[in-house]
Amino acid sequence: MYVFRKKLKKFDMGGGVIRQYLGEGKKVNAQHWDMADKSIVKWHKHTQEQFGYVIKGGFKMIIGKEKAMLKAGDAYFIPANVLHEFVAVGQTEAIDLFSPVKHDFPWMEKKGKGKKK
C-alpha cells in the first residue's frame, strides 16, 4: 500500500489541530498532525501504545510525570493508559503510530470537533 499525503482528507480537530489519517495494518495505524503554534492536545490517555516523531516545530510534552521539550528529529513513546499532553511550539508537524489500531480521539470528539476539511 502507498499513501500520497496530498490526496488525503484533512480533519479539523479544532484549536489549530489538523489530522490526516495515513492508514493502517492489522495491528498498527498512522496519523499525520499539523498543529498551529501553541495549539494543545489536552490531557488524555488511551489503551493503545503510541510512538511519535516530530518532523517540524516541536512540543512541550508531559507523559505521566515526565516533562520534556521536543524539537524536529526527536521522538516519543507513550505506554498504554498513561496520561499525556502536547503543546505545539511553533508550526508543528508530527507522525504518530498507534498499536493496536486507534480510530477515536476523545480529547477532541467531546467538543464536537473532528469534522472533515
Supply the CATH architecture: Sandwich
CATH superfamily: Jelly Rolls
**What is the mean pLDDT?**
91
Structural class by sheet pairing and helices: mainly beta
What Rg do the Cα atoms give? 13 Å
Kindly provide the name of the CATH class: Mainly Beta
**How many beta strands in the DSSP annotation?**
11
- How would a crystallographer describe the biggest sheet? 7 strands, antiparallel
Taken together, the total number of domains comes to 1
- Helices, by number, come to 1
Query: What is the string of SSEs from the N terminus onward?
Result: EEEEEEEEEEHE
Can you give a write-up of this model?
The chain has one domain: Sandwich (Jelly Rolls), CATH 2.60.120.10. The protein has 117 residues and is mainly β. The chain has one helix at 106-109, and strands at 11-14, 17-24, 29-35, 40-44, 49-56, 58-63, 66-71, 75-78, 84-88, 92-99, 115-116. It starts with 10 loop residues before the first strand and ends with a strand. A hairpin with a 4-residue loop joins strand 2 and strand 3. Helix content is 3%, strand content 54%. Residues 109-114 have low confidence and may be disordered. The strands form 2 sheets. It has a 7-stranded antiparallel sheet with strand order 8-5-10-3-2-1-11, with no helix packed on it. A 4-stranded antiparallel sheet has the order 4-9-6-7.
